[in-house]
UniProtKB/TrEMBL annotation:
Principal subcellular localisation of the protein: cytoplasm
Cell compartments where the protein resides: Cytoplasm
Pfam family, one: SmpB
Name of this chain's protein: SsrA-binding protein
Residues spanning the membrane: none
Listed GO MF terms: RNA binding
Function: Required for rescue of stalled ribosomes mediated by trans-translation. Binds to transfer-messenger RNA (tmRNA), required for stable association of tmRNA with ribosomes. tmRNA and SmpB together mimic tRNA shape, replacing the anticodon stem-loop with SmpB. tmRNA is encoded by the ssrA gene; the 2 termini fold to resemble tRNA(Ala) and it encodes a 'tag peptide', a short internal open reading frame. During trans-translation Ala-aminoacylated tmRNA acts like a tRNA, entering the A-site of stalled ribosomes, displacing the stalled mRNA.
Taxon lineage: Bacteria, Pseudomonadati, Pseudomonadota, Alphaproteobacteria, Emcibacterales
Keywords assigned: Cytoplasm, RNA-binding
Family to which this protein belongs: Belongs to the SmpB family.
CDD domains from the UniProt entry: SmpB
Length: 164
């Protein structure tokens, strides 16, 4: 019963509810620009997402024939789906404006960028959205610098907290 109340509380806030995040994306890539895209789903996929059964940590987006697709995103099969169930790792079409798609596709081909999904969430209208980032890969020394900066910020916060 407590879970049902928590879910209804979430909807009353009006904000977005995160389903899955790709935490390693910001560690492995320099995110230069991020976009919000809709995603084409079947009914059983949406029901599975409402239960929070998704993983986008190993997925990526690619441009094919003027369209964007989310590849290798995992959405668990819905238990009550029977024969209408979906394939767990099928490529899913992303919905964006034509100009954005063309600009992203050109950046991927010309500059050697990659499209990385950052998060999967329900927006305030209860539509499933994907936040994707146009990214370039980090080298090992960049990753070490990121870790060093994060540790320093953590330590700085502790020192400031103790000095109060």
């Amino acid at each position: 019963m407590a879970k049902a109340k928590a879910k209804s509380k979430d909807k009353s806030k009006g904000g977005s509810r995160t389903i899955a995040q790709n935490r390693k994306a910001r560690y492995n890539y320099h995110i230069e620009e991020d976009f919000e895209a809709g995603i084409v789903l079947t009914g059983t996929e949406v029901k599975s997402l409402r239960a929070g059964e998704a993983n986008i940590s190993e997925s990526y987006a690619e441009a094919k024939m003027g369209e964007l697709f989310l590849v290798n995103g995992y959405i668990k099969e819905y238990e009550m789906g029977n024969r209408f169930n979906h394939e767990a790792r099928r490529p899913r079409k992303l919905l964006m404006h034509r100009r954005e798609v063309n600009r992203i596709a050109a950046a991927i081909q010309r500059k050697g960028k990659t499209l990385v999904p950052l998060s999967l969430y329900f927006n305030d209208k209860n539509r499933v959205k994907v936040k994707i980032g146009l990214a370039s890969g980090k080298k090992a020394h960049d990753k070490r610098a990121t870790e060093k900066e994060r540790d320093w910020n953590r330590e700085k916060g502790r020192l400031l907290k103790d000095s109060r």
